Amino acid sequence: MDNNDELNKLNDLNRRLYSTNPDAIKKRPRRMLRPVEYIIPRAWGFKKNVQDIEQKLTVRQPILKKFFLASLIIFFCALVFAGFMFYRGTRTISTENVDITVLGNSFTNGGEELPIEIQIKNDNAVPLDLADLLIEYPRGSAGALASDMNRTRKAIGTIEAGKTYIETTKLVLYGEQGTTREVKIRLQYRVPGSNAIFIKDKYYTVNINSAPLDIVIDAPKSITPNQDITLNIKASLATDQIAQNMRLLVEYPPGFEFKSATPNPRYGTTLWDLGDLAYGTEKTITIVGTVKGQENEQQSFRVFAGSADPSDESRVGVIYNSLAHTITLEQPFLDAKIFIDGKNAPTFNAKSRQTIPVQIEWTNNLPVSISDVEVVVALSGNVFNRNAVTALGGFYDSSNNQIVWNKNTTSGFDLVEPGDKGRLSFSLQSLSLITPQGVVQNPSIELSVSIRGRQSGGGGADASIDSFEKGVIKFISDLQVGTGTYYNKGPLRNSGVVPPAADKKTTYTVNWVVTNSVNPVSGAEVRATLPIYVTWKNSTSPVSENITYDTVTREVIWKIDSVGRASGTVPARREAYFQVELKPSLLQVGSVPAITSEVVLTGTDTFTGALLRSQGRASSTQLNSEEGATATAGVVIQ
C-alpha cells in the first residue's frame, strides 16, 4: 500500500468524525449477544500458584547446595595442601640450605703460606652423608691450564642437620705482583635414601701483593741499530719456601741476533735451568747479541721465571714472575754505515778470491762540532787474507788487522762540523776456500767499524762519543755442472750408425756431472730441453737418481736435492746418465746437431742462503768425451 491510499483513508475518517450530515456516518450492523458458559472454580488459584513457586524453588535449591558443598570441599583441600606443603617444607633437601663461608686474608705475598678457615653449615633437615671437601687453585700465572692446578681432597664424612663443619688449611699461591688467584672450594655429598651426588661450590679470590721470584734486567734503554747489547738478568727467591727445579725463559724481539750467553742455555738460546732456589739465592744470566732494526724503533725483551714444565722442556710450566725491558734504537751521534760492493746490508755474499770494494760513510748528526774523529775498521774471519788489504788514505795495521783513519791520516778529522759527512774506502780478498788441510767450513770475513770523537762540554769538559757498525762477508759455494756425450762409453748401450746419417736413428748417452765446493747445497736441480728431432728413450742410470722427462715442455729434469761439501781437496760430485735417440734430416747433413739445449743448474747455498745458478754447454753428437772418437764422428752424413 502506497502513501496515497493511507492519506485517503485518513481524510475519509476525518470527514466522518466531524461531519454534521447523518448520512455521512456509516452505520455498522450490531451483532446479537449469545450466552457463553464458563466453568467457575470453587476456590481462588492461590494454592496452585504457591505450588508452582515451590516447584521452581525446589528445582533451584540442589544447584545451590552443590555449589556450596563444592566450595567447602575446595577450601578443605586447600587447607590440607597448605598443611602438607608446610610440613614437607621442613623436610626439603636443597644445596641452597648449605652455606660455605671462607675466612681469611684476601691479600698475600706470592710463595708464602696463606691460612684460611672454611665453614660449612647444613641448614637442611637431614644430614649430609659421605661429604668430601675439594680445594682447587692455580699454581701460578698459567693456572688456567688443567695441568697447572693444585688440587686437594678431604673426606669429611657426615654433617648433621643444623650443624657446622669447620676446616682449617694453608694455601701457597704463586703469581706476578698485582695479579689475582681464584680458589675454588667444592663440597660433594649425598643424602639419606638417595644415590644422587649433590655439589655446592664457593669461590674465594686472593690478590698477590708481591711476586715470589724477583727479576731484575740490567741493560741499556737505548742503543744504535746493529750494535751489540749485553743483558744481565738476575733472579732471586723472595720467600722462605724453597722453589725446586726453576727455569728462566727469555723472549727476544724480532731484530735480536743471539751470540753468546753465560751460563749456556739448557734449551736452544732461550731457556735456562736455575735449579733449586732458596731464600736469598741469586742466579745471574748474561746474554750478548746484536739488535737490528730501524732508527726510532722500540724492541722489547720479555723474561719469564717459574717452575719447569714436565711435558715440554722448551717452556716454563708455572710462571712465578715476568718482566719486560724495552730499548729504543736511536740515531747515533756519529753515524758510520758500511757499503760492501755498493750495498748497505748486514751481510754480503761474495765469491772466493774476488776483490771486494768496501766504503765507510760517516756523518756528524750532532748540532755541535766534534773534534779528534777516528774511524777504525777491525777485520777478522776464517778466510781473511791479511796480505790482500788495500786502504785508501788510511793506515793498515797488519799486526792488529785494523785500518785506521784519524786526524793524522785524513784531512778534516781534527774538527768535524755539524752535518759534515764523508766516505772512506778500502778493498780486501779472501783466502782459498779449499786448502791442503781440507775445506773451510762457513767461510766468512767480519768487519767491525767504530767511529769516535770528542764533544766539548760545559766547564771545559769533553764527552766521548762512540758508534759501532758491523758487517759480514760470506763466501758462496762453487756449484758447477758439466756435460758429455757417449756412444760406446757409459752404462747404457746404444745403437745406430756413427757418424749419424740423415733419416736414420742413432741413440746416444748424455752424461751430466755436478760438483760442489765448500758449503752444502739444497734443492739442487738440473734442466735441459730436447730438440724436436731428438726422442726421449726413458733409460737412465743410476736408477736411484730422480731423472724425469716432461712431454709437454720437452724438458729433462734431474732433481738432485742435496749436494754435500767437498771432502778434503776433492769437490763433492754427483753424476747421472740418460739415453736419447737422434733422427737427423737432410738439412742437417754436414752439421753437428745438438741433442740437448744448454744445461742449467740451480740450488740454494745453505750457509749464505744465496740462490746458486750455473750453466753447462749443450750436448751434441760430437763425441769429445769418448776416447778414440774422430773429429768427424758427430757430423751428419747422407
In short:
This protein folds into five domains: 49-90; 98-208, Immunoglobulin-like; 219-329, Immunoglobulins (Immunoglobulin-like); 346-475, Immunoglobulins (Immunoglobulin-like), CATH 2.60.40.10; 480-616, Immunoglobulin-like, CATH 2.60.40. Helices cover 9% and strands 48% of the residues.
Secondary structure: number of strands: 39
CATH classification class of the largest domain? Mainly Beta
Estimate the mean pLDDT confidence: 84
Tally of structural domains? 5
Mass-distribution shape: extended
The main sheet comes to:
7 strands, mixed
Low-confidence stretches: 85-90, 141-147
Quote the beta fraction: over 45%
> Total helix count?
2
Structure class:
mainly beta
Query: How much helical structure, as a percent, in the residues?
Result: under 10%
The Rg value, from CA coordinates, equals 54 Å
Q: What is the oligomeric state here?
A: single chain
CATH topology of the largest domain: Immunoglobulin-like
CATH 2nd-level architecture of the largest domain: Sandwich
Distance between the termini: 138 Å
